[in-house]
Write a structure and sequence with these properties.
By secondary structure, the protein is an alpha/beta fold. It contains 8 helices and 7 strands. Helix 2 crosses helix 3. The structure holds zinc ion (ZN). Zinc ion binds next to loops. The site of zinc ion (ZN) has 8 residues, from loops.
Length: 196
Amino acid sequence: MRLSHHYVVPHVSTGDMLRAAVKQGTAMGLKAKDQMDRGELLGDDLVMEMVAERLGESDVRARGFILDGCPRTVAQAEQLASLLAPFDLDLAIDIEIHTSQVCVDCGANYSLSAPPLINWTCDVCGGEVVQREDDTEDAIERRLKLYERQTAPLIEWYRDRNQLESVPGTGSPDAVTRRMVKVIEQRRERKGGRLT
Ligand SMILES: [Zn+2]
């Protein structure tokens, strides 16, 4: 969201679109809700149908866009590439989140290797930092498996195409945005081209 404000381009968030579709009870929303209620991951086709519809609108065609929450799988990345052809994504940014602690007030993320300066007190707002609730062994195990099966191949896919930058996800949302802007600008300088 902050990044799209910085570059004044549309923020296309699959999470937002999905919540809206479910709330409005559209055909796509009902299908998504059904999949989620059964505890399934959303199907690639469903996600990409939603993204394709949004990326067909004139504002994203004119100014470029920031796509948030997608692709999550190699299949989605492939569909996205053919959807955007003959153009392609300028850049995929992997926000690395190994966080286990979060500020309850501002949402800043911390990890064991980058904890708050004062124990359990947020560097950004002074709020209370707590252990993430979903940090049970089961949840960690599930996240690791999902990472190996889905995220790691996706990261490789973009790295092979020289379209990947990674930034650490720790710290305040503003700090993470600053890191993203920095890698985008560095790419821009190297390529000398338009990049949004
Ligand atoms: Zn805070």
